[in-house]
Amino acid sequence: MDIFHSLESEVRSYCRSWPVVFDRAVGSWLHTEDGRRYLDFFAGAGALNYGHNNPVLKQALVDYLAEDRVIHSLDMHTAAKRAFLEKFEELVLAPRGLGYKVQFPGPTGTNSVESALKLARKVTGRESVVNFTNAFHGMTLGALSVSGDSMKRGGAGIPLVHATPMPYDNYFDRRYPDFLYFERLLSDSGSGLNKPAAVIVESVQGEGGINAARFEWLAGLAELCRKHDILLIVDDVQMGCGRTGPFFSFEPAEIIPDIVCLSKSIGGFGLPMALTLVRPHLDVWEPGEHNGTFRGNNASFVTATAALETYWADDRLEKSTLAKGEQIDRALQDIARSVPGVMPRGRGLARGLALADAAIAGQVAKAAFERELLVETSGPDDEVVKLMPPLTITEEELEDGLSRFAESVLSCAAV
């Protein structure tokens, strides 16, 4: 692995936790070039909801490539884009009564967030955006400004302004009424808070520690935004596309955000793709006012369409995800009964185990890797071990991984 050490930037991170060379991947498994196989409870940080090299999606892509179809197209009309938009409207938007316009802002989640922030400021004429403690929205400057992680923010090298953090659900252990501080600042002419253009929120904070907001908290936030004429942006980059069960993570809260950010698994196959969904009356862009060279990734349109047709024509995947999420929760509750000071978190197949000692969380992740299970840590101090397997994982694979995970936790707790 000398070439990685000698030539690749010091910014590399995941490969430091998993110091092997991966070569093949199928379903829920990653294979190294020397023949070992690892059960993947990370799923590309949520970009591989349908597993590695999903055969249905792969065949759709292979057929498309074999016919010399268009790959790169900026924002030109293509047959692949049309097929995706038609299927997205038919299977996702229309059944949920959502009339969003679809913007292709660029290929990644942070591109979607940047376009959402930019549009909210353009529509309202205001600069400030409210974000939440422990939020993570991306690594470009605008997205970083509404993120909470001090290490990532520090990498910007300049002041990150025009954003105001507020406490996320349960930040104060529910000792105070929801939005007590936020609503007081909005209502008090002496608070010094500039009226925000928007509020941006994750319904489940992934990088922030698998913090799942209560549905009533999300509904209260939506009502507060309506009351004060503030746009509501939901960042569903990691938790959308079925990660928590329903296609959108905010559905159970019965809210309709003004803007929704999607990326990661929207492309289906792990190919880069992002969407920004916008209420029609907010779609005030001038042609070309926000663009990007790779916003027309037709290979992603093809696999995204295949994913929608395969997994979202009915509710089987949603029900399966919720059932598997309960399976994980039961396993985590069993661990919590055996190990003092640990706390299960999450919804659907976005689960975490919070440990009182962040060092132990890192040891658990390392112990899992030794047992050929891939898990990562998250949270402000990396104190939460995160479990995010593919949604297509079998019950047997899930049970296998949970057994390895329990062994890893118990081995570290016993030290």
UniProtKB/TrEMBL annotation:
Top EC class of this enzyme: transferase
Molecular function as annotated in GO: diaminobutyrate-2-oxoglutarate transaminase activity; diaminobutyrate-pyruvate transaminase activity; pyridoxal phosphate binding
Source domain of life: Bacteria
Pathway terms, separated by semicolons: Amine and polyamine biosynthesis; ectoine biosynthesis; L-ectoine from L-aspartate 4-semialdehyde: step 1/3
Keyword Calcium belongs to the record: no
Cofactor: pyridoxal 5'-phosphate
UniProt key word Transferase: yes
Family matches, as CDD domains: OAT_like
One Pfam family it belongs to: Aminotran_3
GO biological process: ectoine biosynthetic process
Keywords: Aminotransferase, Pyridoxal phosphate, Transferase
Annotated InterPro entries: Aminotrans_3, Aminotrans_3_PPA_site, Dat, Ectoine_EctB, PyrdxlP-dep_Trfase, PyrdxlP-dep_Trfase_major, PyrdxlP-dep_Trfase_small
The protein's Enzyme Commission number: 2.6.1.76
PANTHER family from the UniProt entry: DIAMINOBUTYRATE--2-OXOGLUTARATE AMINOTRANSFERASE, DIAMINOBUTYRATE--2-OXOGLUTARATE TRANSAMINASE
Sequence similarity: Belongs to the class-III pyridoxal-phosphate-dependent aminotransferase family.
Protein name per its UniProtKB record: Diaminobutyrate--2-oxoglutarate transaminase
